[in-house]
Amino acid sequence: MKRFVYINEDNLAHDLYCDNRISNRKYTIWNFLPKNLWEQFSRFMNQYFLLIACLQLWSLITPVNPASTWGPLIFIFAVSATKEAWDDYNRYLSDKKANEKEVWIVKQGTKKLIQAQDIRVGNLVWLRENDEVPCDLVLLGAADPQGICYVETAALDGETDLKTRLIPPACVGIDFELLHKIKGVIECPSPDKDIRRFDANMRLFPPFLDNDVCPLTIKNTLLQSCYLRNTEWACGVAVYTGNETKLGMSRGIPEPKLTAVDAMIDKLTGAIFVFQIVVVIVLGIAGNVWKDTEARKLWYVRYPKEGPWYELLVIPLRFELLCSIMIPISIKVSLDLVKSLYAKFIDWDDQMVDLETGIRSHAANTAISEDLGQVEYILTDKTGTLTENKMIFKRCFVSGTFYGNENGDALTDAELLSAVSSGSTDVIRFLKVMAICNTVIPVQSKNGSISYKAQSQDEEALVRAAARLHMVFVNKNGNFVDIKFNASTIQYEVLDILEFTSDRKRMSIVVKDSQSGKIILLSKGADEAILPHAYTGQQVRTYAEAVEQYAQLGLRTLCLAWRELEDEEYQEWAVMFKEANSSLVDREWRVAEVCQRLEHDFEIIGVAAIEDRLQDGVPETIETLRKAGLNFWMLTGDKQNTAIQIALSCNFVSPEPKGQLLMINGKTEDEVCRNLERVLLTMRITSSEPKDVAFVIDGWALEIALKHYRKAFTELAILSRTAICCRVTPSQKAQLVELLKSCDYRTLAIGDGGNDVRMIQQADIGVGISGREGLQAARAADYSIGKFRFLKRLILVHGRYSYNRTAFLSQYSFYKSLLICFIQIFFSFISGVSGTSLFNSVSLMAYNVFYTSVPVLVSVLDKDLSERTVMQHPQILFYCQAGRLLNPSTFAGWFGRSLFHAIVVFVITIHSYAFEKSEMEEVSMVALSGCIWLQAFVVALETNSFTILQHLAIWGNLVGFYVINWIVSALPSSGMYTIMFRLCRQPSYWITMILIVAGGMGPVLALKYFRYTYRSSKINILQQAERLGGPILSLGNIEPQSRSLEKDLSPLSISLPKNRNPVYEPLLSDSPNSTRRSFGPGVPFDFFQSQSRLSSSYSRNCKDN
């Protein structure tokens, strides 16, 4: 689809395209209630509770007042709706501020001030310096005579460096006054969200230009939310407005990510639901049988002889309503609340602040913090993520001579300085390519000093190095660049720029020497993009060896080349280049094809080597996270040798002879097949440590492997815990993440640039580094950090604590609901299996909403171990990775505890009060009191680190229970009049509470003491060490049980096990699948023993790809 924009004719497009009103709102006043209710009731659990609430309106079957369900349901829905309404209101205020901003447009030949929301497609918009661009514009005029203006795009892509924007050639030279009257048409594509691309054509109407087509690119546009800088004024025509701008099309709510904990909670909820249905069916049948055999004989029951047709359903439905509280109605709101607090803890963490830039860590996704503690694979970019992305020109190779090898810095190499001063032809040409072949903008200050604005750190490093060697890029005036060498100034006219793309991997520029008139093609790029295109007869072997040598040192390399063009050759090519640039279909492909026609027969001039230093703390962070059992894959676009050297320097892999790198290279299917088979056989039999063996693959071989040998490569991914993937594209990075996810691994992707966005969004957890390449990655990520080293704290501290707390909160929520439900079930056995409720409606409602919620919410402050201990012993993260705190086994423990406590409360209460001719309300209050006392002690027992707030929540909540019930007991109409006053005056009530607590908590304490003393987990031993203040020795590595695949696999085929082991775990003493180790008394606390990665069999499910 195409769009035709008529310049300065807004009436023609008035009804075709939207106005410039921005709307990020999700609701309106009129649709908020129905839309929000629809969204909330689209969830199964909410539908279930609504059904239960509606059934309670049937007075014949409801055992309690409907308010006991409707009250909490309305409260929870109101909380969720209020949060949504508040968020939407803030979006409305933000939209209102942007929509009412005043801007200048041209209407009927005169300037007019209007609100931004009234701009229409086709309007001429005038901007002044520092103005925000209100919509997507095509630039038509600027204050600069050469038609250049500068914009800051930080709000769009996070890059703080200024970008140049150019007036289309057709508009150059149009007088300021005539811009008011300009007419024409722009043919452009339909709105899209690609901020890097705009393929359009423009025709101006006479008298400006007679229907000559002028191609437009993204460099001729000013996009919404950018700012005009260092330019007095600019004028443009609106092409996309409102929510159809590129920024507006990019907005949207990302797809929610389901954490492993959420998935487990869903499974447990399903299991409880099945159990509930079974209980309802059994008790319903029993109730009907008792009614027909016994109840009709009892005169006081008063069952009619014959009932309606639905009589058999009454008792089962009563039990369904009675047992509906098995599934806690408040669990989702509670989890959402604590997860928001987890995210705030990350935002508030002062130890995760980059002191250099002042950037704090930020959690953009508040729903997945516990997944940080269950990560198994980390896929990381290299440049700007592991390294600083601060490029420094260190060495070079020109015409057979190495410069900088002696002292490590070419800029101070006496031999190079001598070659420059003597005017060596090859060195001078080398410096000219460094200074001219780029998109750098020189900015001259008032004192005469020159600074450079560059989108590429590599280009800035080359330009600065050339300036240090007296080849100074001093000025860029339109299509003319001025280079100052020693005392003379050389001027070149830029004829065409062949921009860098990830496919071509090179950038070229066609310039004309203003003195000699020669047309020259200057190029720079990766060695595989330059060296194969050298002219016939040039020996490129020495240059390839230089590239190899520099890569061995971990330096980034760029090859520089040059070619003189004949005038006729250039003119013929320029026509094709213009046609390709004018194409609206496949423009990028056509331009690349035309560029190929010119970029050949290069004269290779030299090789530049650039250093990109490692960030502080990277080796230590990787080493610590490896001890925690995390596996690392490096995904980079850099050369293989450079990537390997960086991997060696940051502890990614072990150096030789201990380390073993398995290469997978090849340009054909057969070569890749042989290499992949060889590596697979090695990986199947190796007994090396995880970081001592790694496979290395380049982008070309990876593409073949993923396309033709995907199953074999998947097996390799399962077997290998370390990988280096070089020369990979952004789409390949995302494919590798998807591959590991398909094998049911929890993945974390971390990067800093726009090329990492797809990988970050594909992973279970995306982490962006706020780096020198801008904020694109950080904005697309779930979490943003200032430096790679903060990843250690993000995972080990925040991830682990979040998982532990969520595991306790979710299971405790089920425990307290099951406890009260079991008591109701037991009561039915002494009430004729009739489905009668022991507790009144007010008590049930208060129990779920008030009495049991406050203490558990402060569990977000609980820490089983100090942060120092967690960081010192990262091996304990295995408990989280294995799902050791939340799984069917642990849930069964909580289920059993709730059943046992229900028996204790019911038996003691009934024996204490039922035979004393007490009122029903008294028995109910005693049982409820026992539940509240037990839950207070359960929370206290499960709390590891007490604070004043936790004490207030636990014991203050207990006091609050009595205060509330004293108030309710003072109300004659409450149905509980004087109940609590009478009970509190009876010594038997307090004796009953003591018996319930002793009977309920005694066995639990005894079991906990036994496990803590005789079957201590590793965490228990660390807790003892912390409390005793004793020394904690350095811990060895615990390796997860390795995967055992079929040894007799046919070459390049996989026969994976169909069922995955239910728990992915290391050999831990309290694991049901492990063998306990005994430790001698002479080695206190040194309990983690090293395990060979192939010491025991382990199967891992991998979905068929």
From TrEMBL:
Binding site for Mg(2+): D381, T383, D752, D756
Cofactors (names): Mg(2+)
Key words, A-Z: ATP-binding, Magnesium, Membrane, Metal-binding, Nucleotide-binding, Translocase, Transmembrane, Transmembrane helix
Catalytic activity: ATP + H2O + phospholipidSide 1 = ADP + phosphate + phospholipidSide 2
P-type ATPase C-terminal domain span: 778-1015
Active site per the UniProt annotation: D381
Subcellular location: Endomembrane system; Membrane
Membrane topology qualifier: Multi-pass membrane protein
PROSITE patterns recorded: ATPASE_E1_E2 (PS00154)
A single cellular component GO annotation: membrane
P-type ATPase N-terminal domain span: 5-70
EC number(s) given by UniProt: 7.6.2.1
Signal peptide, first to last residue: none
Transmembrane regions listed in the UniProt entry: 268-290, 818-838, 844-861, 891-911, 923-941, 948-968, 988-1010
GO molecular-function terms, A-Z: ATP binding; ATPase-coupled intramembrane lipid transporter activity; magnesium ion binding
Domain P-type ATPase A, residue spans: 100-162
Binding site for ATP: D381, K382, T383, E459, F500, K524, R556, T636, G637, D638, R727, K733, N755, D756
Family (UniProt): Belongs to the cation transport ATPase (P-type) (TC 3.A.3) family. Type IV subfamily.
Name by which UniProt lists this protein: Phospholipid-transporting ATPase
